[in-house]
Known about the structure:
Number of helices of chain A: 8
GO molecular function, one term (chain A): oxidoreductase activity
Largest sheet of chain B: 8 strands, mixed
Protein name (chain A): FAD-dependent oxidoreductase
Helix content of chain B: 25-40%
Distance between the termini of chain B: 42 Å
Radius of gyration of chain A: 22 Å
Organism (chain A): Alkalibacter rhizosphaerae
Number of helices of chain B: 13
Keywords (chain A): Oxidoreductase
Structural class of chain B: alpha+beta
Radius of gyration of chain B: 22 Å
Shape of chain A: globular
Distance between the termini of chain A: 58 Å
Strand content of chain B: 15-25%
Structural class of chain A: alpha/beta
Oligomer: heterodimer
InterPro entries (chain A): FAD/NAD-bd_sf, FAD/NAD-binding_dom, Metab_Enz_Cyan_OpOx_G3PDH
Amino acid sequence: MNTEKKQVVIIGGGPAGLAAAVALHDLGVKDLLIVEREKHLGGILRQCIHDGFGLTRFKESLSGPEYARRFIDEVEKRNISYITETTVIELTEDRIVRAASKKGLLTWQADAVVLSMGCRERTRGALQIPGERPGGVYTAGVAQSYINLYNTMVGKKVVILGSGDIGLIMARRLTLEGAKVEGVYEILPYPSGLERNVEQCLNDFGIPLHLSHTVTKIHGGRRVEGVTISQVDQERNPIPGKETYIPCDTLVLSVGLIPENELSKMAKVELDSRTNGPRVDASYQTSTPGIFAAGNVLHVHDLVDYVSMEAERLAKGVVDHLKGATSKESCIPVLAGEGITYVLPQQIGDDQEPLLSMRVQRPAENIAVVVRQGEKELARLELEEALPAEMIQILLDPEKIKSDQPMEVYVR
Amino acid sequence: MKKYDVLVIGGGVVGSAIARELSRYQLKIGVLEKNPDVCLEMSARNSAVLHGGFAYEIGTNKAALCVEGCMEFDEVARELDVPFIRTGKVLVGNTPEDMESLKETLRIGKINGAVGLEIIDEKRLKELVPAVEGSFALLSPMSGILDPFQYTIGLAENAVKNGARYHLMREVTGIHREEDGTYKVETSKEDFRTKWVINAAGLGAVKISEMLGITGYKMGGTRGHYIVLDKAVGDLLPMPVYPVPSTTYMGIHVTPTVEGNVTVGPDADRVTDLANYGVEQHNMDYLVEDASTLWPHIHRKDFIRNYAGIQPTWLDREGPMKDFVIEAREDVPNTVNLIGIESPGLTAALPVARRAVQLLVEREKPEMNSNFDPTRKRIQRFAEATPEEQAELIRENPDYGEIICRCESVTKAEVLDAIHNPLGVETMIGMKYRTRSMMGRCQGGYCQMRIAQLLQEEKGLDVTQVLYAREESELFSGRVR
C-alpha cells in the first residue's frame, strides 16, 4: 500500500481543523492536508443555522454555516488541500494516518498530526434512564440534524432533558417548526447552557425551565407516550412523591458532550479524566510527540470562537515541532484546585506562554480566580459573575514563571 | 389466500431453526412473525451464551438438547457464518456451601453428558480470568458466546434461501380447522391456508396453543435486566463469569460479547406483563452492586445501553413445568406444539427444531429437498478485515470506502446489504442487528440519520414509514413545514 509523506495531517474539517490549517499555512507550512469524513467542510456548524456565532472572533453575529464559510474561504484562498468523504480509521504513535475513502484506503506518514475530531453527545444509554426503548428519543444534535439538514420533523409534543446549549436552541427550533415544547428539565439547580440561550430560546418563547428536575422514566413500548419527571434533592437523587407524568411523543436529550478521542487512544495519547480529552502542554501537544489537539476534541467549549482561537494558537507549537525545536520539557504541572472543574493545559514548559482555560464548579458572584505557584501568585482574575457554562481564560506572563513547582488554579 | 404445506408461527431462533430444518424437505413453508424482524424478543434479549448443559435436571429434554446443541455449534456457526467463540465459562464460589453446590452441579453435568467439566482452584481461576474475584470455580470448557442476532437471522435467511417464505408483521389472531382437514390461519393482515401448523411462538406460545385447541398451559414471566458496557473493558473478561447457581436461577453474571463488549445481568423480577421490556432504576443499581462482587470493573462511564428480556415461567396442570414440551397430539392432527422453550432455547434451538420437524416427517413422509444448501454468508464486515482486504473490498465496491457508522466502522456497502436482506425489514433495529451500526458508544448519534435516509431512498419509503423497532414505532412525524 502506498504511503504518502505529509508535513501536517489535520483530522477533521470543522472549526478547529479549518482554523489550524489557515494559521499553519500563514506560518509557512504549505504541505498540509485536512481530512474530513463528510461531503463538505464545516463540521457540526453546518447544522447550526441559528445565529450568534463569531461575536468574539469577528465582532458580528453569524449563523453556523456563515461562520464556517469564513474559514473555508480562507482555506480555499490559500489552496490548502483538503479531502472530503474520507474517514480516518487508524492513527499510530508514529503518526501514520490511515483513512477509508471511495477511492481506496489512503495512508499518510505525517511529521505532525492535528486532532480536531470534535465531540459526540451523551446518550440515553450513558444516563441509564429507566423505562422501555421506544422510538422518539433523540439527542439534541441528532434532532437538530434531522430538522436542519434532512428537513425531517422528529415529533409534535416534546420534553427536553438537560439545559445544554443545543437543547435550549432545539427548544426554540422545534417551537418555530410547530412542535409544542412542554418544558426543559435540568437536574442541576442552575442551567447548563449559556445565559443568553436561556433568555433567547426559552424565555422569549415562554418555554418553562424546571431546575432540579430530571426524567426518571420513559413510557411507551413503541413510540414515546410520556415521561415521568421527578424533582431531585441536593445530591441529585429523585425525591419520592415529587413525580409528574407528562404526556409527550418525543424526548430530546441535551445532557452533555464528550470529546471524541477513539483515534487518540489508538495513538496512545493520554487522556484527562476530567476533560475526557488529551492532556496537553501550552503548545497543545499531547503526550504522544508530534500529535496536537484543539477544539472540542480537547475539551468541550462554550463558544465556537474560542475553538477557532485555540486552534490558531496551536499552529505555533506545530511549527516549532516541525523545526525540531522540541520544548518537550513541559514539566510544570497545572492543577485544578478549589472551585475549578478542570484547567488546560495540564502541564507547561517554563519557556511557554500558556493560555489557561478553565471552568468553575458552580455559579458564583464576586470571586477571584487565582493562579498560584508555590507561595507566588502568578495571576488573578476578578469576576462579578462566574458560571460553569462559561469558559474562563487567563494568559500567563512567562516571565513570572520562575520555578518548576506545580501551579494551582483555584477560586477564592 | 396464500397456501402452504406448513406454517411456522413465530420467527424467532426456534421458529427459524424449524423453518430451516423443514427446508431440507420438499415442502411449501411459510413463517408468520408478528414483529417487523426476526429477533426482537426472547431470541435477542438474553445473555448470548452457548450453555454447556450442566444446569438442567437429569433426563430432561433441556439437558439432552442443550448438550447436543452445545457440542454441534461449531458446525452450524460455520455453515451460517455466525460469530461464535468457545470461550469456556466459570461458576465462581467462595464458601464451603458453594463448593458443595458446585460439586453437585459437576455430578449432574457429567450425567447429562456435559464435556470437560472440572473444579479449579483460585490459582487456575486467576490464570483464566485475572480480573475475577473468587476462591474456586467450576469450569465448563465447552461453553461459549455467540451473536444471537446473527444466529437467528442466519437461520431465517438460510431457510429463505432454501425456499421458505417469511411474512413479517403478521400477528396470528385465529386458527380454524376446515372440513377438508386443513387449517385457516387468520392474521392481523391476511388469512393463510395450511396443512400443518407448528407453534413456535415463544412468549405467545400459550395463546397459539389455545387457538389450536390445546389447553392446560399457563405462563408467567420473569423479567431480567442487562447493562451493556463499552468495549474498553472487554479485554478484562475473556469468558462468562457466573456466581454459584441457586436451584431456580443462574444468578447475575458478567458475559463478554463476541464483539468485545461486556453485558451485566440478568436479575429476575416477577412480572405479569410479558410485553413490557421496561427497565427500572433499582434493577440497574442492583445489577451493578451484585455483579461487582464477582468482577469489580463495572463503572458508569462505560455504560452504553441497557435492555430487558422476559424469561417465561411455565405451568401445566401439574404445576411448574421443568422441561421443554415438543408434542404432536393425535387429537389435534397436523400440528406440532412447542411449549416452555425458554433457556437454554438459544443453545438447543437446532436440536429442538429437529425433534419438532421429525414429528411432522414421521407422519407426512415428505421427499427430501436435493437442492438444500446449509450455508449462508453474513454481511462482510469492513472493520474485521485487514488493511489489504479493506483495500480490496473498496476496489471491488467503492461503497466499502464510505464509513457510515464511526464507532463500529460500518460502511455504506454493509448498510445497503442489510437494507436489501432476504427477509426484508424496514427498521433501525433491523439494521443494527445486521451491521452493528448504532450499537457503539454514540448509539447512532452520527449514523442514524444517514441510515434513515438510505432506508427511505432504497426502499422508497415515506419519511413517516421508517420504524425504530416494532410496528407503530415511527421515527418521524413528517417533513419540516
